[in-house]
Write a structure and sequence with these properties.
Elements (H helix, E strand, L loop, with lengths): L16 E5 L3 H12 L4 E5 L11 E2 L7 E2 L12 H8 L7 H5 L1 E2 L8 E5 L7 H19 L5 H4 L3 H9 L8 H18 L22 E2 L6 H11 L6 E2 L4 E5 L10 E5 L4 E4 L1 E4 L3 H11 E2 L4 H9 L1 E3 L1 E7 L11 E5 L7 H6 L16 E5 L2 E10 H8 L3 H16 L8 E4 L12 E3 L6 H9 L16 E3 L12 H20 L1
Parallel strand pairs: 1-2, 1-12, 2-8, 6-16, 9-13, 12-21
Antiparallel strand pairs: 3-4, 5-7, 9-10, 10-11, 14-20, 15-18, 15-19, 16-17, 17-18
């Protein structure tokens, strides 16, 4: 990005310098849209050695892909990523496609539910409890909660409503219900449903159509590649973590914004689109911006929550589960989402001794007939990240053996995600804690700086914000991230069109 000999009073997009921070779906969508609209000076700075952000398609075990990060296309109708994937033939085809398509929170007869005493829970009990649980959560999603439930956490509301269900009086019913709350934590990326808002969830909009939980052989990377193909060579610069964003630079400066990287390299710009995760903003917002962000923006960053969802991939030399088994689900006598257990573990660090109880179970993995994937969330996930892979694998094998009674061999390879400890991400996706006005926080986070009414001669839209945490209805999703990148690009396109 060479400095041009002119004051930065850009007359059109061909002169405007735009720096995009982050190369996830939000950043790449913004960059691709700007380039398409005729912007000639677009640079994407990526802290990691690879593009994609929370999308990370890799091949650690065989020639087939594993999704370390995002692996769902959330719905089809109105989903731009589904549209791209369909148009470019990036979706899985054939009989396996049906197996890889499902509705959210769905449990199939192929899920084996085991109790810690080694006995299986009857599919009838599982179906009835899961079905009722989904009806109760749907009420929250559809904004149909009774007044008495609106101010409660999702966990407290569910406890109250589930208590009236006949199976709530049975031990198996209660234990499968606790499993349902644990699996819901992975959907919401929260540490516990007892910290999650029951009423705010209704602002999240689920798109119609089944969920693709696996794409074609190229995985999510193939969709990123579609966007990358539209960017001129050299647009994305990896290994370039940003240290500071100096905005509202003085009138004597040629450009209103200066981005300084950790290695000392700096880039001047008319506009910066910040697409880093909410986790990074929580970590660095107070030091990254000069001058500091307005109080309401910092408050929004603080009020929105950023959760951790980790995956534990276990690769075996041969499979040991029945052909019709889609996953081994772990049902505990005293699971962490049981109300009394949660309350007893809320103080102190005793919960660390039983961190593994937060694992919901081990699912089979598309294209990997001898691999299983365990899911874990919240503080237990963050604690797990501090352990050695070998220790985690040994505990998982022990769980599989004791719950199923099957002959479980040792693990030959592992891949364990550590999204919470990753300094360039600090978690997985956004959720709304109880007592927080999510809509207000999302909107405040998304608002550009400086506001139009405070520009005093200097250009506005110096700093723009995109990423899933800035979308009121599609937070947590890849299409939400993508659409916010398009939103901020369109903001600049309109600005130069006026």
């Amino acid at each position: 990005m060479q400095r041009t000999e002119r004051m930065s009073t850009c007359t059109g997009p061909e002169n405007a310098k735009v720096v995009v921070i982050g190369s996830g779906f939000a950043g790449l969508a913004a960059a691709a849209r700007l380039v398409e609209a005729g912007f000639k000076n677009v640079l994407v700075l990526e802290a990691k050695e690879r593009v994609g952000g929370r999308v990370h398609t890799t091949k650690p075990f065989t020639e087939n892909i594993i999704e370390v990060g995002a692996n769902w296309i959330h719905g089809q109708k109105g989903n731009p990523l589904f549209k791209i994937a369909k148009e470019k033939n990036l979706l899985s085809e054939g009989p396996s496609a049906r197996k890889n398509m499902c509705l959210p929170r769905s449990v199939t007869p192929q899920d084996y539910f085991f109790k810690e005493n080694g006995k299986q829970v009857s599919t009838t009990v599982v179906d009835q409890v899961c079905s009722h649980f989904n009806k109760l959560t749907d009420k929250a999603f559809d904004d149909e909660l009774e007044c008495k439930h609106k101010k409660l956490t999702l966990g407290a509301y569910l406890d109250d409503a589930f208590g009236e269900f006949p199976l709530a009086a049975t031990e198996d019913g209660q234990q499968v219900y606790e499993w349902c709350k644990r699996i819901e934590c992975t959907d919401e990326a929260c540490s516990s449903l007892y910290e999650f808002s029951a009423s705010q969830i209704s602002y999240y909009t689920a798109l119609e159509g089944g969920f693709f939980n696996t794409l074609g052989p190229g995985g999510y990377q193939a969709i990123l590649d579609v966007l990358l193909k539209d960017l001129p060579s050299g647009t994305v610069q990896c290994n370039a973590p940003v240290k500071s964003i100096q905005w509202e630079c003085g009138e004597d400066q040629m450009y209103p914004v200066k981005v300084v990287c950790e290695n000392g390299e700096s880039f001047e710009a008319d506009h910066v689109i910040v697409t880093v995760s909410l986790g990074v903003l929580k970590d660095k917002a107070t030091t990254m911006f000069e001058p500091s962000l307005p109080e309401e923006k910092l408050s929004a960053i603080k009020n929105l929550s950023f959760g951790i969802v980790d995956k534990i991939f276990l690769f075996f030399e041969k499979s040991f589960w029945p052909d019709d088994c889609a996953g081994v689900q772990l049902v505990w006598k005293e699971g962490p989402e049981d109300k009394d257990v949660y309350e007893s573990l809320s103080e102190g660090e005793t919960w660390k001794k039983t961190w593994f109880k937060k694992i919901t179970g081990f699912d089979t993995v598309a294209r990997h007939p001898t691999a299983l994937c365990g899911w874990i969330t919240g503080r237990e996930a963050l604690y797990m990240e501090s352990l050695q892979d070998s220790e985690i694998a040994a505990i998982c094998v022990r769980l599989l053996r004791s719950f199923t009674g099957w002959s479980v061999p040792e693990v030959s390879k592992t891949l364990i995600t550590r999204w919470g400890s990753d300094p360039h991400v600090r978690g997985s996706y956004t959720f709304i804690s109880n007592g927080v006005n999510g809509v207000e926080a999302h909107k405040t986070l998304a608002s550009p700086l400086p506001p139009k009414d405070k520009c005093s001669g200097r250009k506005h839209f110096q700093v723009l914000f995109a990423g899933e945490a800035t979308h009121v209805n599609f937070y947590t999703t890849t299409h939400g991230a993508y659409l916010t990148g398009i939103r901020e690009a369109e903001r600049l396109i309109s600005y130069y069109a006026d």
